[in-house]
């Protein structure tokens, strides 16, 4: 879902070579599994029935020196399938049940 959404959003402003390079190094089962397993990252999901329609990744950790917060965090990714834009999917993002165990 992440790669498909990224491609849909950015195809018109990138070359196919640049898009393919980015997707090759940023998306894939192993890459996403490693990200989900990182203790300083939280992945939130939104589902419509059995279908994943949106997700966000929040990351905590070392920030640039100009960020002065005590516990800085970043919204690293926020993806929603196009047909669900404007439907409230982003507000419904939640920690998946399997991650709460």
Which residues sit in consecutive blocks of at least 5 with pLDDT less than 50?
A: none
Largest sheet: 3 strands, antiparallel
Q: CATH-wise, what's the superfamily?
A: Gcn5-related N-acetyltransferase (GNAT)
The Rg value, from CA coordinates, equals 15 Å
CATH architecture classification name: 3-Layer(aba) Sandwich
Q: Helical element count?
A: 4
CATH fold-level assignment: Aminopeptidase
Order the strands across the largest sheet as they lie in space: 1-2-3
- Give the termini distance in whole angstroms: 24 Å
Query: Which CATH class?
Result: Alpha Beta
The shape, in one word, is: globular
Portion in helices = 25-40%
Fraction of residues in β-strands? 25-35%
Number of strands: 3
Structural class: alpha+beta
State mean pLDDT (0 to 100 scale).
88
Tell me the series of helices and strands, N- to C-terminal: HHHEEEH
What number of structural domains do the residues give? 1
Could you state the oligomeric state of the chains shown? single chain
């Amino acid at each position: 879902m992440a790669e498909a959404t990224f491609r849909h959003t950015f195809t018109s402003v990138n070359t196919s070579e640049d898009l393919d390079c980015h997707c090759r190094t940023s998306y894939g089962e192993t890459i996403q599994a490693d990200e989900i397993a990182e203790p300083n990252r939280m992945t939130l999901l939104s589902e419509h029935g059995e279908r994943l329609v949106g997700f966000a990744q929040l990351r905590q950790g070392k920030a640039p020196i100009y960020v002065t917060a005590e516990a800085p965090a970043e919204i690293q990714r926020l993806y929603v399938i196009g047909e669900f834009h404007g439907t409230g999917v982003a507000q419904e993002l939640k920690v998946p049940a399997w991650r709460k165990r």
